Amino acid sequence: MNENPLLAESGNPFSAPAFDKIENRHYVPAFEAALAEAKAEVDAIIENAEEPDFENTVLALEHCGKKLNAVEEIFFNLNEACTNDEMQQIAEDMAPKLTEFSMYVSLNEVLFARIKAVYEKRDSLGLNQEDMRLLTETYKSYARNGANLSKEDKQIFGKISEELSVASLKFGKNVLSATNAFTLEITDETQLAGLPDFVKEAAAAEAASRSKEGWVFTLDRPSYLPFMQYSTRRDLRKKLWMAYNSRCIADNFDNDANVHQIVDLHTRSAKMLGYGTYADYATEDRMAKTKETVNAFVADMMDKCLPYARKDVADLQNYANANGFEGKLMPWDFSYWSEKLRTEKYAVNDELLKPYFQLEAVRDAIFGLAGTLYGITFTRREDIPVYHQDVQVYEVKDGKRFMGLLYMDFFPRESKRGGAWMTSFRDLSVRDGIETRPLIQLVTNFSKPTAETPSLLTHDEVTTFLHEFGHCLHGLLAEGSYASLTGTAVARDFVELPSQFMENWAFEPEWLNTFARHYKTGEAIPQDLIDKLMAAKNFQAGYAFVRQLQFCTLDMAWYTTTSVPEDSAADFEHKVLASTAVMPVIEGTAISPQFNHIFSGGYSAGYYSYKWAEVLEADAFSLFKEKGIFNKDVATSFRENILSKGNLEDADVLYRKFRGRDPRPEALLEQNGLAEGTK
Fold it and tell me: Would you say the pTM of this structure is higher than 0.85?
């Protein structure tokens, strides 16, 4: 086993994973050895004859399974970013074993009895704040994961958890497979009408990479979105839109059964724990606290934004009709006419902006922004192994102090799921006085460079980069001793605050002017182009808000059910969203069967978190707008009270320490021109 690169010391700087040595054949032996070691560590706590105390029970449990965590974090992160058929099969095969071990720990009566004994005498132990938080959160976690169930119910609960892990994996696998299964291949150049050169160039490169003639368009967002925005071929837009929005519906990768099973399993597990619905369970330890609070929040936002969304659609319909379009706008028309209206109204579009947002320049500017705000530096390390040739690694330091490594993986490939995300290969921890700093991963699907053109980002992609980088800062600037309390291990409706907070700089001329240069000429981005970008900031904000709120509504509808709906996933969705629909609903399409966030991504009954956290970030950023967007005092306070604190205190307490008060909900609507007097 010492020869297994997943288990042995890597010998790399900072003990970084030996990605250059890890092969598929190493995973199963590593899992099996790490599982055996983790079980032995847990058994040692259970069999300890000494009276339970903080050190021999709670602290010992916190340090259990470190090797297993390391194997899991490497394997499952790569299964998202650089997978293959064998890895996906390993994931399915290992899921029951990992769940069985998880249930062995979380449902262990003797172990919980020891934890409970320590918890009941907590006030007499003289614990510091961090240790008391660890004890409290550990006890709560066990209680919320079935530790108080009867022996018979624990067996049922464990089986439900096992089935849920497998169903979630199958769901995500189907979405990836369905995405990869479709291509739009074009050999007749006339069918490229309306597409800018950068879109055609990328499609030609995609075709060449597949040994195809002509141009290939895929369902990956850098390929899909520009086609929908610019193609004058309505028939091809419809074909691409239908392919994208019908994924995992009545095809080889149908997720209908998985959706129903996942909802059923979540509902049954919640009821076993004494909750009416899964949403009751999920919201209890978040800022929102109850599903009623969430539903009221979403409904209030919807009431305020729906009139703006309907006006956005009506205005677009009128614009299209005035420019020769006949009939009713369909979903595959929206992006096309929206781009035309935006360009005409503000004289700004991606084709004009992309030359000023070369990926490397944006990356360096974001690093520089983090340096200005928080005093940290990023240095490329080419001596640290990576899992794919596209990946870059950066050493992050605060002065002389090592803060962590940042792995950056920018471009689409068939082995990577769509979207953008941050995760970690290793979390912060301190043991025996030795601090182990985090290894953070940032993954996106930005446009690849071609032989003629470097990777150029849309402004939306710049915003996405900032968003995920905010999550990275949350991990890299973490302070504390316990992995379970540090970094992004916070309430789901608080975790998006650092990410969405960073998005604000994408709309700040003072920052954009520091780096936006034309990749060919080196000329600074013209001030009038920045002015137009700022003027267009809230273009169709009502429509965009309602689209997100529909996702929130759909998520809560699935997880506030007391029994699984008999309708198909698509039919259930259409009924739930009927009253808020602002565009025609198309038969055979739906988001639910491909909604990774809520069926395989950890956001079940939690998608509202994005809008909830947007309220926090809008209110938080208003302080920077007041004091200066590079103000070091405000940045230091944000770092000390938000970014570094993890779950050391309740989220609402941490926010009040930063802002001096509770957030103003109106801040978000004002920021987006959706409040009275702001449009």
Answer: yes
